């Protein structure tokens, strides 16, 4: 009580000091000129200070909420020093310690504040409820565990059917994964071979292009030869004209010009034949180049399809591996659950501690009823 009074006084002093500061500030700002204004201002300040001090004292000393908290916070303390640490751990784990404390605090409150008849009625009701709770049999959990252990194989089979993944299917998935991996390896080798063929096509196309270029150069040389042949024919014609002018003296020139003309015709025929063969060869070379281009495009298309197939195969392998991992994880979890249930649960210790705590609470309630009986008899 003294602590609360001191605290109330301290708070009142602090708030008074704050009010004085506020008052001085207002007084300085307003600056009243006559005595009446100054008197009214002081009167308002003192009334506000007194009312605030009374309010602070009431809140500190007579707060009903704090009194109510004090009533309910004072729970009776029983002499349970004989209880061992293991018993306290079991009681705490089973959640009965808090229940016992609440019951005891509630009983102490109704013993002090409630009527005697109401107290007896409440205690009797609590005892009846505790009788119902005490009658609960934890052997039902053992029965459920035994039933689950008996039907573990059925549960395993049902779970496999529900998930659609059995042990045989897991083996099939493993085989499919190995086949897919081997197919992927073969496909990779095929793609490498196609790439080599494509590079060979490119080299062949380059060689043919070089040959086509040389063929064009030969054709240009033949064109130059034809030009020289035409020049020779002109020379032969000029020689024949000069031989005709000289008569008998120019007969030898006539023979030479005839031979030159004959040679020019033969060379011209050979040149035309070679030119025709070169043109045919160039046409064949062009056809070969076109076929190589077409084949190269097909090879590139095959490489693209092979790469897409390889990507799809990789995805398939990943999916199969994921399915295998999920199946193995599910199998491990099921085996762990089955191993846990095969060990079973010992509920006897829990049942014993539970009933001991219920009996202690019932005994305390019975003591209250016994204490209240003499008072009832005195009233009668």
CATH topology of the largest domain: Helix Hairpins
Instruction: State the shape.
Output: elongated
Under the CATH scheme, which class of the largest domain? Mainly Alpha
Overall radius of gyration? 59 Å
Helices and strands, in order, run as HHHHHHHHHHH
Low-confidence stretches: 63-95
Averaged pLDDT? 64
Task: Specify the helix fraction band.
Answer: over 70%
Structure in words:
The chain is mainly alpha-helical. The chain has 3 domains: about 1-60; about 85-140 and about 345-380; about 165-345, Helix Hairpins (Orthogonal Bundle). About 90% of the residues lie in helices and about 0% in strands. The protein has 11 helices and no strands. It has helices at about 1-30, 35-60, 65-75, 85-95, 95-115, 115-135, 140-150, 150-165, 165-245, 250-345, 350-380. It is elongated and about 180 Å long. The two termini are about 40 Å apart. Mean pLDDT is about 65; it is low at about 65-95.
Give the gist of this structure.
The chain has 380 residues and is mainly alpha-helical. The protein contains 11 helices and no strands. It has 3 domains: 2-62; 85-138 and 347-379; 167-343, Orthogonal Bundle (Helix Hairpins).
List keywords for this structure.
single chain; 380 residues; mainly alpha; Helix Hairpins; 3 domains; 11 helices; 90% helix
